[in-house]
């Protein structure tokens, strides 16, 4: 059962993104390079956000639960802002690269348009972001344990998979809209992208019931080697 849940949730979360990569990215080496570079930019933003959050936690009172919850929201907001800042930096880098490709082109036209760059970079941000958000959940889905065996919701894994799929698509949309707004200097649209990203992150992390995993030991009466992993609000 664990393998079925793992592969099912994996294909739900990343199946559409994999199809997009195979159909629209894999056939063009330049798009593959843009995809990998976009994922690298997102990773750098995550590294900086993690460093800021880690330092803030180390300097704070770890016994203050309310403060730690506030730092969690602070870290999420900083992460979003850094992601958008690196998205802008990636846009500037791609614009410079586009100008260089035009000079090398025989017909004076770039081999890839800015809209295509926006789509590929947004897809890169979405794939790597979704991977980091769901990888631990997928690892837990293999087992040992069964979600919902003690009356909790059994839909935690599949819900997380659909949310990850939505996150991948959202990053793709955000990347396309963001690049177009930067190209046309539409600052209101840029603010809309950043605000919607903050709201989405807040909906995911700004709950007072923060999900956590606990493992209840198996009863000695139950002749099984597997314990039950239960998801509950802490």
Written account of the structure:
By secondary structure, the protein is mostly helical. It has one domain (2-208). The chain is 73% helix and 5% strand. It has 6 helices and 2 strands, in the order H-H-H-H-H-H-E-E. The chain has helices at 2-25, 29-58, 65-104, 114-141, 156-184, 187-205, and strands spanning 211-216, 228-233. A two-stranded antiparallel sheet has the order 1-2. Helix 1 packs parallel to helix 5 and helix 3 runs antiparallel to helix 4 (114-141). 26% of the residues are buried. Residues 206-234 have low confidence and may be disordered. Pfam families: Aph-1. Keywords: Membrane, Notch signaling pathway, Transmembrane, Transmembrane helix. Its main location: membrane. Component of the gamma-secretase complex.
Q: Quick recap of the structure?
A:
By secondary structure, this protein is mainly alpha-helical.
Keywords:
transmembrane helix; mainly alpha; membrane; 5% strand; 6 helices; 234 residues; two-stranded antiparallel ribbon; notch signaling pathway; Gamma-secretase subunit APH-1
